[in-house]
Design a protein that fits this description.
Distance between the termini of chain A: 30 Å
Helix content of chain A: over 70%
Shape of chain A: flat
Number of strands of chain A: 0
Radius of gyration of chain B: 26 Å
Order of helices and strands of chain B: HHHEEEHHHHHHEEEEHHHH
Number of strands of chain B: 7
Largest sheet of chain A: none
Oligomer: heterodimer
Structural class of chain A: mainly alpha
Low-confidence stretches of chain A: none
Mean pLDDT of chain A: 91
Largest interface: A-B, 35 and 37 residues
Structural class of chain B: alpha+beta
Number of helices of chain B: 13
Strand order of the largest sheet of chain B: 3-2-1-4-5-6-7
Strand content of chain A: under 5%
Largest sheet of chain B: 7 strands, antiparallel
Helix content of chain B: 40-55%
Strand content of chain B: 5-15%
Distance between the termini of chain B: 14 Å
Radius of gyration of chain A: 14 Å
Order of helices and strands of chain A: HH
């Protein structure tokens, strides 16, 4: 019952990496680093909002 | 995944979640106002600010500030003195009946006039105080903290087992599919899976750092009993300090020992962050990291000389780095808003999870996890 990795895990892995980049960048510096954090974490939140609020 | 494995992970996910869900809901709900702690305290009018004065108004001698506070509160002793980089015109003082007093009093003084400012409400006022205690210790001190830490550990188990179950329950669906056309239960299952996987890493980080924060008191005890105890050894048998060395001079000495840093927090002798014979001076830099990771300098409270200028032990560094990652207070308003949104998404994951369990029905309960996964995907 092995499933191919790609179709199921690509999106979760990308979201996970975006989250980690967002969490760490704001810790590293201010200004551009804060902006990078807002964009990456913002993308994660937007994906969650899009899929949970869209109607067929 | 074999049927036996699926059943095991399913069992683990169900029970770890069920035990911690009510507390996680409480933490998510009380955490929401805590993200905006500063704004709410300000809006409620519970913030005390120093009056506006010309920018070049000189600062008063700190010893005078301390003397004014102790004269206004006779019988009290100094416990802590601190200054927020954002509000350089205000000294925050904590006084108590004894250095170890738990019934302490927070005071504010104007750093330029050495006059006392109005007493700030304890913990930001009644509402924020309630939110804080429900979030941090359930009004049960260290036991409440450690209990919530245990619930945090269960959350981590629930998250990991949830990831393991994600594949068998979604394997035939495109990412993000929420099926609206069939049963309500299926819709909520899909919503649980989508929001759960989207918020996964954030929830893991906030959950793990929250758990580490519950150990703060214990980690401080370790430091007291090892490094601080070592510093106290040469003073064994000496009477407690009666005449404290000048704080103004101690701050100057500490600044010399830590160039480029400024004092953020001073623990007076006998308190938790110092020894009975030292001032514990905590020096902060202005980079994002050094403004979080103070350098502790111990100054002999009698002579005013530096005893040690060390780096924080690794476990306190870990604790202090885990705090911003839990609070979300390190990236401006944008990060706070995202913290609030991800918190709300987590509340939906918790609620849908609880709903799925409540509405599992007799039929569903009779079926195995394997069958349910097959039906769901």
């Amino acid at each position: 019952m092995m499933q191919p990795f790609g179709p199921i895990w690509t999106a979760p892995v990308v979201l996970g990496v975006l989250t980690i980049v967002g969490l760490i960048s704001a810790l590293v510096g201010d200004g551009a680093w804060d902006a990078l954090s807002a964009v990456t974490l913002g993308a994660v939140a937007a994906v969650g909002g899009y899929y949970s609020l869209r109607r067929p | 995944m074999t049927n036996t494995n699926l059943r095991r992970w399913s069992w683990m996910h169900k029970w770890s979640s069920l035990v911690c869900t009510v507390f996680m809901l409480l933490l998510c709900i009380t955490g929401l106002p805590l993200i905006y702690h500063h704004e709410i305290v300000h809006a409620l009018g519970n913030e005390v600010e120093a009056p506006a004065m010309p920018a070049d108004t000189p600062r008063a001698n700190v010893d005078k500030v301390i003397a004014t506070a102790l004269a206004a509160y006779p019988g009290k002793v100094m416990m802590y003195l601190s200054q927020d980089r954002e509000e350089p015109h205000v000294w925050a003082l904590t006084v108590g009946d004894a250095p170890t007093s738990t019934d302490y009093k927070p005071l504010l003084a104007d750093a330029r006039t050495a006059q006392m400012l109005p007493e700030p409400p304890l913990e930001g006022g009644a509402f924020m105080s309630l939110m804080f205690h429900l979030h941090v210790d359930l009004y049960a001190g260290i036991y409440g903290k450690l209990f919530l830490g245990l619930m945090g550990l269960l959350l981590l188990v629930a998250l990991v087992s949830g990831v393991v179950l994600y594949a068998p329950f979604t394997r035939k669906l495109a990412f993000g599919t929420v099926r609206h056309e069939r049963s309500r239960r299926l819709r909520w299952l899909d919503l649980h899976n989508v929001l759960g996987i989207v918020t996964l890493v954030w929830a893991l980080v906030v959950g793990a750092t929250g758990m580490i924060n519950t150990w703060a008191d214990l980690l401080l005890k370790v430091w007291q009993n090892t490094e601080l105890a070592e510093m106290t050894k040469p003073y064994a048998g000496l009477p407690p300090v009666t005449r404290l060395a000048s704080m103004q001079a101690a701050i100057a000495t500490a600044k010399q020992a830590a160039p480029g840093m400024d004092v953020g927090f001073v623990a007076f002798p006998g308190t938790a962050f110092a020894t009975p014979h030292h001032y514990g001076m905590f020096m902060y830099g202005d980079s994002p990291l050094t403004s979080r990771l103070p350098r502790p300098i111990l100054i002999d409270a009698q002579t005013g000389a530096v005893t040690s200028s060390a780096h924080l032990p690794w476990y306190l560094t870990a604790l202090l780095v885990s705090q911003p990652l839990h609070f979300g207070d390190y990236g401006g308003q944008a990060l706070k808003l995202l913290w609030a949104l991800l918190d709300l998404a987590t509340i939906v994951v918790l609620m849908t999870g609880l709903y799925l369990w409540l509405k599992r029905g007799k039929a569903a309960a009779a079926r195995t996890a394997e069958q349910r996964a097959k039906e769901a995907a």
